[in-house]
Write a structure and sequence with these properties.
This protein has 16 helices and 15 strands. The two termini are about 15 Å apart. Helix content is about 40%, strand content about 15%. The protein has a seven-stranded mixed β-sheet with strand order 2-8-7-6-5-3-4, sandwiched between helices. A four-stranded antiparallel β-sheet has the order 9-12-15-14, with helices on one face. The longest helix has 16 residues. Helix 1 packs across helix 2 and helix 4 packs parallel to helix 12.
Length: about 425
């Protein structure tokens, strides 16, 4: 066997030093730490694919608007807990322009990134009806959302959607909802980490069952319009970003500034609550929060208790970005489509050297190229593959940490640089030689 680019003793020693007993369950931060330390100890550049951080400059239209607001003195003022009126208006417009759904501005509430949006949504949904105390994840998904529920002490259930696409989704979903204890259904679309994209038939199933069983759907749109198989970037023109909002009134849309606008550092997003849900009165919420409806509990209780509002200047940035996109002056897809181009090149390299794409199809279509994709290697478990790749200076997280039941890894394209394709080709060629199938 040929020598690996990084000595195994270095990687194994670092994993032991960090107290990681099962590398398959290592968190993103732990994998990142091992990679950084191994890179320093070995002097070998790592190809880092574990962190889902934007690898592009922030949208200039947002930066300009935020800087101007600061120069105008906005930093001295507390933001309104309901949000900047201009941002609420532009968020409502954006949802109409790119999803073709009508939500009143009052239901569009700025949050400190979708992370805070999901945290506050979980709190509100789980308290709305005492009989419904459990959240259902359509996995794989973002691991930190389950951590949020762990922090809150809220129960959750989960299933891997791998074998339940299309019409198969209906009986699987109903098997959970029929128990009567599910307060919310959570998924991302496009999906982190698999990059599957639910189509309208699947979203209709989710929406119809959410209405029948009176369950709230939390649709995480962190990767808005990033199904690069279709151009979803033309405002007020089809095709639109697919959404469950067309098929039920029981929904919350989580729109993030982090990926579509590369504005992750300012922690800004918008939680868009349907008009009907925003004004709905739940007996248990009314008893606990002075008769307030769902939407005002979300904003004036949950968000107020969490952070007393969202960064004032960042709201000006988000308003400008959403407005410019809706006006057709700023095509955010053109800036971020490089992620899809990177994924295409990376997949070719991995597959050329005996890897396979784990979540490889969207029903009858090949999976889209985007921010994430998934890889596996015959005969290796997730943990074995992740650890082995570290010896070749490649870091990624295991699918098990995302709720997937498949053996493989999540690969993120955001930090890949042009010179690293040749590095990956060389290293994966050696990997295949050292690990014949």
């Amino acid at each position: 066997m040929a020598q690996t680019p990084i000595k195994k003793e270095i990687v194994d020693g670092l994993i032991n030093d960090l107290g990681i007993q099962d590398f398959a369950k290592a968190t993103i931060r732990e994998v990142k730490q091992v990679a950084a330390k191994a890179e320093k100890a070995s002097g070998v550049e790592f190809i880092k694919m574990e962190m889902g951080i934007p690898g592009l400059p922030a949208a200039q239209v947002g930066v300009d608007a935020q800087v101007k607001s600061l120069q105008d003195g906005i930093a001295h003022s507390y933001p309104d807990i309901q949000g900047l009126p201009e941002l609420k208006q532009q968020a409502s417009r954006f949802v109409k322009a790119f999803i073709d759904v009508d939500i009143q501005p009052e239901g569009c509430v700025p949050v400190c990134g979708s992370m805070q949006g999901t945290f506050a949504s979980f709190l509100t949904c789980s308290q709305a009806d005492k009989r419904k105390d459990t959240v259902l994840f359509i996995d794989p998904g973002f691991p930190v959302q389950k951590m949020q529920l762990q922090v809150q002490g809220v129960k959750y259930e989960t299933f891997d959607v791998y074998d339940y696409r299309g019409e198969k989704l209906r009986p699987k979903l109903e098997s959970y909802l029929s128990k009567g204890n599910i307060c919310a259904i959570v998924y991302s679309n496009p999906n982190n980490p698999s990059w599957i994209c639910f189509n309208d038939d699947e979203l209709r199933i989710i929406g119809e069952l959410a209405t029948r069983y009176d369950t709230i759907v939390m649709e995480d749109l962190a990767y808005f319009a990033m199904d690069f198989r279709r151009d979803l970037s033309r405002p007020f023109e089809p095709p639109y970003q697919p959404s469950v909002a067309h098929y039920t009134d029981n929904y919350i849309l989580l729109i993030s500034g982090s990926k579509a606008f590369s504005y992750a550092g300012e922690r800004i997003g918008v939680t868009c609550i349907s008009d009907k849900l925003f004004h709905r009165h739940y007996d248990d919420l009314s008893a606990r929060y002075e008769g307030l409806p769902f939407g005002l509990v979300f904003s004036t209780r949950m968000l107020y208790a969490l952070s007393s509002g969202t960064s004032h200047s960042a709201q000006y940035a988000m308003a400008a970005m959403l407005g410019a996109a809706s006006d057709g002056k700023y095509n955010f897809r053109n800036e971020i489509k490089v992620y899809g181009e990177r994924a295409h090149k990376l997949k070719e390299i991995f597959c050329r050297h005996n890897f396979h794409i784990v979540y490889d199809r969207d029903l009858d279509q090949p999976i889209a190229d985007g921010f994430y994709f998934t890889i596996g290697y015959k005969g290796m478990t997730s943990g074995e593959l992740a650890r082995e790749l570290m010896y070749y200076g490649v870091s990624a997280i295991c699918l098990i940490t995302t709720g997937s039941h498949q053996e493989g890894l999540r690969v993120c394209t955001s930090f890949i640089e042009d010179h690293q394709y040749a590095q990956l080709e060389e290293r994966m060629k050696l990997f295949a030689e050292n690990n014949p199938i």
